[in-house]
Amino acid sequence: xxxxxxxxxxxxxxxxxxxxxxxxxxxxxxxxxxxxxxxxxxxxxxxxxxxxxxxxxxxxxxxxxxxxxxxxxxxxxxxxxxxxxxxxxxxxxxxxxxxxxxxxxxxxxxxxxxxx
Length: 116
Fold this sequence. Notes:
Radius of gyration: 13 Å
Order of helices and strands: HEEEEEEEEHH
Distance between the termini: 24 Å
Largest sheet: 6 strands, antiparallel
Number of domains: 1
Strand order of the largest sheet: 2-1-5-6-7-8
Number of helices: 3
Strand content: 25-35%
Shape: globular
C-alpha cells in the first residue's frame, strides 16, 4: 500500500473535482493497470502504471491543484486517506468489522477540499 501512496502523491499538476476514480479493486489494478489522466484541467497530467497489493481497494479524486487517495484492506478494519496538500495521511477505523469498498471514498471529497 505504501507504493500506491508514494506513486500517487509524487505526481505533477492542474481543474474541478472529478468523480472518484477506482485505482485498485480487491488487489486488481483497474483500467488495465494504468491510471489514466482525466481531461484537463486535472492534477495528473500523464498516465502512469498502477500496481496493487492483494486485498487492497483504492480510489482517487483530483482537481486542478490537488490529488487525494483513499485505500482500505478488504481483510482489515482500517482505512487510509491522504492528499497532496502537505502529504497528510490519516488512518481511521471502518464502521463495520471489516472495511467495504465504499469506505475508501468516504470523506475523500472533503479531504481533497482541505488540500486546495
